[in-house]
């Protein structure tokens, strides 16, 4: 019989106290786990203006109610207030640590970590219990830290997290996997928490779920997405993006990269010594040997560290990825920071001798960013590495150059250029954690769609995908698998463990003549759950001061690329944003309305510090303005 996850483990690093507490049943029903549950705890427990790197911030490492049982790679969620954006952050990673965390938590959904230790510590999780131990690994990189615990799953911060770089990762499995975007590693480092060690093996899949898992794993293996992942993993995205005309290159000055073939999937296949999870139905990333050890590059590496920096040498791109992995730097944030420095140097805004195509210079600058100091052999402005460690926007605030590299909510964009696909711009702009290519993925479909695709189509797709992935990331399923193998948002799996999100569902149902509720459709209920979670993260961000201005189209994307691709039309984008708000039942400031909160069961959750819009946009108004 499957284990029910009904508790969380609390750790206060300031006092050294630990506790085990039950998650309210209505929270499990309405937010499930992972992203949703993390959002609920953040909104409940953080005051507006909480310093992301202060002891009051909450760092939640969470799984879903079926962690370890679902098909595909087991994953965990790191949820916190971002030091990069100042808003909501959820980031995900798979691999051995996620597997072992699922086993070590026993009947718990995760760890809630607050406070800050006065010296480096580690947290050990075993058999549903947690303890705090001193750590002597401070200063070690991710690979060195993992080597200290050969018989456990390890998540840690590298030197970048220790120095609170705003896009530092939580690195697991020696740097092969990362909860990457938005700086969860900086939060962990600010707490002097070097390592989380999960001691137990992964949970055994119970007999009542084994057949379901095998069925869905096989279905995913036959699905086109599973076949694509088996053939090329996400490294193939550099080839795809270049082919369809959305690959940003050389600091967002070009669309398309002449060296794309040299850093894409064929190069990975040629160099790989194997694949992660080779015994699985769908194997994982390519294992590439480098002089400094094995690296498992994902698609972001050739896109951001390769094309984005004008580097067409696959081996050097992988080595730069390895530098980021060991230091604990998000490759997208790091690659864009270096790209900004190159362009700012070319424009005379800063002193920076690194140029596009200069892999050695990029490596030295990455190391300087993680250290927040300039080494003697790198002739750059002495304040540049420290500024870049806080992100592109922080460098702009210090030096200027706002029109060089685009960001949304201070998060640098992945390398899919919206100038050739405006739906991508909408997905970036409305993402709850800042520029993200995973909340919704119009880059997968829009470049190949019919040319007369309407604004309504674009909005419907972005809203639907954001809601659906909010459910999948609350289950913390491998989202490629969940999207491809499930048509029901996981309702069958949740029903198999009698989860309150679908058990006796009456939301969306009707009442009979006696006033007794009759069950509604569990898939509809989960769709509403996804919308509720997305709206809650919007409420969290609104309470921190975010509104329509933070959904703006970044200035660099309003201008033409060097190849003549025109910039995104600002007026057309604003009309698209109106459509998006109307579809969500929000007002023209991009804030939820009391009516939308009532419909989603959030009226009793929202507090007086959270601004709302009084009236939703009339859906007909943006439709008429599209002409």
Short description:
The chain is built from 25 helices and 19 strands.
Structure description:
The chain has 627 residues and is of the alpha+beta class. It is built from 25 helices and 19 strands. The strands form 5 sheets. It has a 6-stranded mixed β-sheet with strand order 2-1-6-3-4-5. It has a 6-stranded mixed β-sheet with strand order 8-7-12-9-10-11. A hairpin with a 4-residue loop joins β1 and β2. It is globular, with a radius of gyration of 23 Å. The chain starts with 6 loop residues before the first strand and ends with a helix. About 2% of the residues have low confidence.
Question: Distance between the terminal alpha carbons, to the nearest Å?
Answer: 58 Å
Largest pleated sheet: 6 strands, mixed
Helix content, binned percent: 25-40%
- Mean pLDDT, as a whole number? 93
Q: Name the assembly state.
A: single chain
Which shape, going by the Cα principal axes? Answer: globular
Strand percentage:
5-15%
Overall strand count: 19
Read across the widest sheet, the strand sequence of neighbours is: 2-1-6-3-4-5
| Poorly predicted residue ranges | 507-518
**SSE-based structural type:** alpha+beta
| Number of H/I helices | 25
Cα radius of gyration in angstroms: 23 Å
């Amino acid at each position: 019989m499957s284990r029910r996850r009904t508790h969380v483990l609390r750790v206060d690093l300031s006092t050294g106290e630990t506790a085990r507490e039950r998650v309210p049943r209505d929270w499990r029903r309405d937010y499930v786990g992972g992203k949703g549950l993390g959002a609920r705890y953040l909104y409940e427990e953080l005051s507006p203006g909480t310093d992301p790197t202060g002891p009051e911030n909450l760092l939640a490492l969470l799984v879903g109610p079926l962690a370890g049982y679902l098909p595909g790679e087991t994953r965990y969620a790191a949820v916190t207030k971002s030091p990069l954006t100042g808003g909501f952050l959820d980031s995900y990673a798979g691999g051995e640590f996620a597997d072992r965390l699922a086993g070590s938590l026993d009947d718990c959904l995760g760890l809630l970590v607050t406070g800050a230790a006065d010296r480096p510590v580690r947290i050990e999780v075993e058999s549903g219990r947690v303890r705090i131990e001193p750590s002597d690994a401070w200063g070690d990189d991710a690979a060195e830290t993992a080597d200290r615990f050969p018989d456990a799953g390890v998540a840690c911060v590298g030197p970048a997290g220790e120095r609170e770089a705003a896009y530092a990762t939580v690195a697991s499995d020696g740097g092969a996997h990362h909860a990457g975007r938005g700086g969860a590693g900086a939060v962990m480092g600010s707490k002097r928490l070097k390592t989380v060690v999960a001691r137990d093996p992964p949970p055994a899949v119970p007999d009542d779920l084994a057949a379901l898992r095998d069925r869905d794993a096989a279905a995913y293996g036959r699905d086109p997405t599973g076949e694509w992942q088996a053939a090329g993993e996400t490294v193939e995205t550099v080839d795809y993006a270049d082919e369809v005309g959305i690959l940003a290159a050389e600091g967002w000055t070009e669309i398309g990269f002449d060296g794309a073939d040299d850093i894409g999937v064929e190069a990975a296949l040629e160099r790989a010594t194997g694949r992660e999870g080779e015994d699985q139905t769908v194997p994982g990333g390519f294992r590439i040997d480098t002089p400094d050890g094995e690296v498992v590059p994902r698609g972001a590496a050739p896109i951001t560290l390769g094309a984005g920096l004008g580097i067409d040498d696959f081996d050097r791109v992988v080595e730069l990825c390895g530098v980021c992995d060991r230091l604990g730097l998000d490759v997208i944030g790091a690659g864009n920071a270096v790209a900004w420095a190159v362009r700012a140097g070319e424009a005379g805004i800063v002193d920076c001798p690194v140029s596009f195509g200069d892999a050695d210079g990029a490596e030295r600058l990455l190391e300087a960013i993680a250290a927040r100091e300039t080494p003697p052999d790198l002739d750059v402005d002495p304040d540049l590495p420290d500024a870049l460690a806080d992100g592109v926007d922080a460098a702009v605030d210090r030096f200027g150059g706002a029109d060089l590299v685009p960001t949304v909510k201070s998060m640098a964009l992945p390398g899919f250029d919206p100038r050739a696909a405006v739906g991508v711009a909408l997905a970036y702009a409305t993402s709850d954690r800042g520029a993200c290519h995973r909340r919704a993925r119009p880059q997968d479909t829009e470049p190949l769609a019919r040319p007369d695709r309407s604004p309504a189509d674009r909005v419907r797709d972005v809203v639907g995908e954001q809601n659906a992935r909010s459910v999948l990331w609350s289950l913390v399923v491998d989202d490629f698998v969940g999207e491809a193998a499930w048509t029901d948002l996981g309702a069958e799996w949740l029903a198999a463990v009698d989860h309150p999100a679908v058990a006796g569902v009456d939301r969306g149902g009707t009442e009979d003549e006696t006033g007794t509720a009759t069950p509604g459709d569990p898939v509809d209920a989960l769709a509403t759950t996804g919308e509720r979670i997305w709206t809650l993260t919007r409420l969290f961000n609104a309470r921190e001061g975010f509104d329509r201005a933070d959904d703006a189209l970044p200035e660099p994307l309003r201008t033409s690329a060097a190849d003549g691709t025109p910039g995104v039309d600002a007026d057309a984008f604003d009309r698209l944003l109106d459509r998006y708000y109307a579809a969500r039942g929000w007002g023209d400031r991009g804030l939820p309305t009391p009516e939308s909160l009532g419909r989603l069961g959030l009226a009793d959750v929202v507090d007086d510090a959270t601004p709302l819009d009084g009236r939703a946009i009339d859906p007909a108004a943006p439709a008429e303005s599209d002409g």
